Amino acid sequence: MEFSNYNLSLKEDVELFTKQLFYALFEDVCREKANHLKKQFVKILNGLSVKKANEIWMYYQTSFCNIREKLDLDAKAFESTDPACKSLGEVYLAYPGFHAIAIYRLSHELYKINVPILPRMMSEYAHSLTGVDIHPGATIGNSFFIDHATGVVIGETTVIENNVSIYQGVTLGGIQVKKELAEVKRHPTIESNVTIYANATILGNITVGRNTVIGANVCITKSVGANSTVIYKSQNSIYT
């Protein structure tokens, strides 16, 4: 039997590149455009047999300043939403949810121009660091807030509008897994100003209307209208 060969050491190259690109966003990225990372980027794309690496890098660079602007809006959402947050610097340095969003925004730009594999490798790196699994194909608006981070899953065709807050353990997923659904929208749309609390599960191509609150541990497979509140009623029985 013959096996195909893969250069798995590219995983380490992508992790280092992604880490350094994340840092570069908070230096003078609008002017410097992370030029010092071009060689690493081209090497990775060559390793993935992606053509026109230099042209892709030049195009990718044009997105960095806009990504930084979006991240500043995300960070302000963290600071204004979390009562435990004391400063923007704390968000940039210590919030895994913010870290995951930053790498998502970097990988999403490559996904949009159909660069294969690399966006997924970047998102899996973020997943391993933060416990947040955001597919680079998801579409996420401004001022996005993820608190506590761990266990959040956001599927490929998810759409999240502006000013959405989600908490640990939230899943925005598909209702079934079939290969023939690859080109179909199979994940939820979350409209603006929605809050989704811990361990809620929202499945399928449904819509959660604007200004809605989804309580902890709720499971939803049908659309919810705007200005709604959805809670899971349960009762703990305590015997002494």
Please summarize what this structure is.
The chain is 39% helix and 12% strand. The chain has eight helices and 14 strands.
Describe this structure in words.
- The structure is a single chain.
- This protein is of the alpha/beta class and 240 residues long.
- It has 8 helices and 14 strands.
- The chain has helices at 10-25, 29-32, 38-47, 53-61, 64-81, 88-94, 96-112, 118-130, and strands at residues 133-134, 139-140, 145-146, 153-154, 159-160, 165-166, 171-173, 189-190, 195-196, 201-203, 207-208, 213-214, 219-220, 229-230.
- Strands 1-4-7-10-13 form a 5-stranded parallel β-sheet. Strands 3-6-9-12-14 form a 5-stranded parallel β-sheet.
- The longest helix is centred in the first third of the chain and has 18 residues, at 64-81.
- It is globular, with a radius of gyration of 19 Å.
- The model has no long low-confidence stretch (mean pLDDT 95).
Write the layout of secondary structure elements.
Elements: H1 10-25, H2 29-32, H3 38-47, H4 53-61, H5 64-81, H6 88-94, H7 96-112, H8 118-130, E1 133-134, E2 139-140, E3 145-146, E4 153-154, E5 159-160, E6 165-166, E7 171-173, E8 189-190, E9 195-196, E10 201-203, E11 207-208, E12 213-214, E13 219-220, E14 229-230
Parallel strand pairs: 1-4, 2-5, 3-6, 4-7, 5-8, 6-9, 7-10, 8-11, 9-12, 10-13, 12-14
Helix pairs in contact: 1-3, 1-8, 5-7, 7-8
